[in-house]
Amino acid sequence: MDKLYIKDLEVFANHGVFEEEKRLGQKFVISVTLELDMHAAAVTGDLSKSVNYGELSAEIETEFQRESYDLIETAGEKLADYILSRYDLVQGVTVLVKKPWAPIHKPLDYAAIEISRSWHRAFIAFGSNLGDREKNIQTAIASLTNRNDIRLVCQSSIIETEPWGYADQDAFLNGVIEIKTTLSPADLMTLLLETEKRLKRQRVIHWGPRTLDLDILFYDRLICDHPHITLPHPRIQDRLFVLEPMAEIAPWYIHPVLGKSMTELMEQLKKSEA
């Protein structure tokens, strides 16, 4: 990935734990590294296919001065979030914030933090079999994608399926969305659980009826087994109501553990159930 640098931009702002820092302000030195594909800009000479670093420098100053934070960690995080949400071409950003006047009464060049953030590819399965099923799903998708840290890439068709795992319940509506997100897997999972709760999901019967079910299927090519989340989702290969929507929107996406595409896994499961 190509990189664009803005190095040692001096900005006067009012961040710091101490009251004097908030009241008097101080100098900060900011460096930013952007990751983006600049080939089209290089070939065509079209600045719109890159990032105008003059405009970005002015925006960095404005955003860094917009509010006062106790920690430069927070100021750096906010700046990274702003750049990723503001510039569609930017896939990743590293923000270095130096604090040369840090009030620690020791000789030093500066105290500093460095934060790296980027967009990640994720697939989320959705399902509902209680209440207004389609409304539940559309409300959830709108809630998730109406955020700066999540972008909807595509959505599968919504299909009606028989219940899986617990048969004595109504049919489900199911599907999959592909998103880009700057959230970590753990933060994304927390957001999905909060969204289910807002849609009044109750966990009474395992695999039982629910107003809304949201699961992370894949997050980049990440493989992890954590008490809070397992990636990829451990039962993808056993569920046609997941594989069919996945095969619709990402037919050749390769399962990072099983080494097979979504189409291959779908056909394999259909044959085993025939």
From TrEMBL:
SUPFAM superfamilies: 6-hydroxymethyl-7,8-dihydropterin pyrophosphokinase, HPPK, Tetrahydrobiopterin biosynthesis enzymes-like. Its EC number is 4.1.2.25, 2.7.6.3. It comes from Eubacterium maltosivorans. It holds the Pfam family HPPK. Pathway: Cofactor biosynthesis; tetrahydrofolate biosynthesis; 2-amino-4-hydroxy-6-hydroxymethyl-7,8-dihydropteridine diphosphate from 7,8-dihydroneopterin triphosphate: step 3/4; Cofactor biosynthesis; tetrahydrofolate biosynthesis; 2-amino-4-hydroxy-6-hydroxymethyl-7,8-dihydropteridine diphosphate from 7,8-dihydroneopterin triphosphate: step 4/4. GO terms for biological process: folic acid biosynthetic process; tetrahydrofolate biosynthetic process. Transmembrane segments: none annotated. The keyword Kinase applies. One of its GO terms (molecular function) is kinase activity. This is Bifunctional folate synthesis protein. It catalyses: 6-hydroxymethyl-7,8-dihydropterin + ATP = (7,8-dihydropterin-6-yl)methyl diphosphate + AMP + H(+); 7,8-dihydroneopterin = 6-hydroxymethyl-7,8-dihydropterin + glycolaldehyde.
